[in-house]
Specification:
single chain; mainly beta; Leucine-rich repeat, LRR (right-handed beta-alpha superhelix); five-stranded parallel β-sheet; four-stranded mixed β-sheet; about 10% helix
Length: about 200
Amino acid sequence: MDSGVICEEGRVTRLDLSEAGIDGRLDNSSSLFNLQHLKSLDLSYNYFNSTIPSRIGDLTNLSYLNLANAGFSLVTLDLSSDRMLEGTNLVIPNLSVLVQNLSKLQELRLDGSNILAPWNRWCQALSSSLPNLRVLSLSHCYVPGRLGESLVKLQSLSVVDLGGTNLSSPVPQSFAKFSNLTLLNLPGCGLQGTFP
């Protein structure tokens, strides 16, 4: 990507602020979020020391976003897609790589995604990388294999949505050990057997 500001027809479409020495907070009041034609944004290798502003979602034309080593604290990651819209579902080949540096993450929503790792592998990835996870939403995901018991290590979980995932496996006895669970959504998930 070219560095600096790139304009097309008088509109900013690319902004590269990587390694710009920015030290401070980025919040929802930033004029950055008024750049409605922005397609590419690189904020890598700065120190923002804040959470990722929710208004990042206002940049609806954005197709490239680089926040590597930018000092952001990520607490919610929502990469859900609508499985009813052909070609919109996210394919996640390696969930371990996606979550490995997100130890502060509290909400993970991957509804409608294709997670290529088997259930037991992604359960292990979540339990070893996301100790503070409170919300896990994987409704209508395609994930091969059976649900892993290592998910029970996520003792902060209060919401689990596995509806429509076609698990086709026995109900894990570990579900009885989630002491903070307030919502468990499992319609059409294919779990079999007696619920603990």
